[in-house]
Amino acid sequence: MLREKIPVGDLFIGGDAPVTVQTMWKRPLGETIDDVLASIHDFAAFGCDLIRFSAPRLEDARIIGSIAKRSPIPIVADIHFDHRIALEAIRAGVHKVRINPGNIGSREKAETVLRAAADAGVAIRVGINGGSLPRTLRNHPDRGEAMLLAAEEEIGILEKIGFSRVVFSLKSSDIESSVKANTLFSQRYRYPLHIGLTESGPLVPGTVKSSIMISRLLLMGIGDTIRVSLSEEPIKEVMAGVEILKALGLRKNGVRIISCPRCGRSTFDPHAFLARYEKELLKSDKSLTVAVMGCVVNGPEEARHADIGITGAGREVIVFRKGSIVYKGEAERAYKAFWDQFSSFEG
Ligand code: SF4
Known about the structure:
15 strands; TIM Barrel; EC 1.17.7.3; metal-binding; alpha/beta; eight-stranded parallel sheet; 4-hydroxy-3-methylbut-2-en-1-yl diphosphate synthase activity (ferredoxin); iron ion binding; 20% strand; single chain
């Protein structure tokens, strides 16, 4: 079932729009807006499409609104319990508000927020979380179904006032119940879906679990925007999210890196090379494949078949471009030759 397509700032979520990647700001809003904006520009360069900020206080809503006015990507305000903060965020110019109508105080307050959002053209994300289900559903034996039922309670409020600029998320820290909730929801409703595991953990376990869950859904055609939620800096969430989309062929732009793990045979160090260049490569939106290889066992073939490749080969390092050798010699010059080729490559 094709999802509704809703605008969020300059972006679209759902329908035939590309799947987007998002992250969340992880510190209190104590630093200057210029510093926050510099970070957002960096996240955007790595492929982040939108970013969410918590707004526990009224003044946070105003700060987030100021950020939204100068941000290169849409800004989402995350609000619980106090509908006045949601109203202030909408007034201040955020592009989307994450609330749960059911926990914003009362049905009347939820309706006030939804009407204000409708008047301002602001989207809403309703986020159902398996860890904070309504009391009536907490002992439900099936977590996936319980999340669906919680979402349906919220839909009742939305439909009463005809508000449809909505994205839903149904998340838990468990893969199976999250997949089930999103699958059931997508069979019944056309609201776009923000997918991801919540509280998925530190970098490696969190990325692995999130990738499995998100990929299972995306491969079924479910999911319009993704977040890899990690106990890590936002940039790691963005990098993981973008790599999931690239691996599934859902994001064509960007550099695909093939690199060997290195072993006792290596005569060129892929780890050191990537420590120097990985971020610059991943920030590029050129569409090409790069191979970084340690020795002659697999190096020359992988490097030859990539758009640009660098590999150890005995005492020398070879740089390939589209299958042809463009440099052969010592490592430091090979670095430069590689980077010159990359810079001049029209991807
Ligand atoms: S390419 Fe060479 S260095 Fe890299 S893992 Fe394979 S054998 Fe080891």
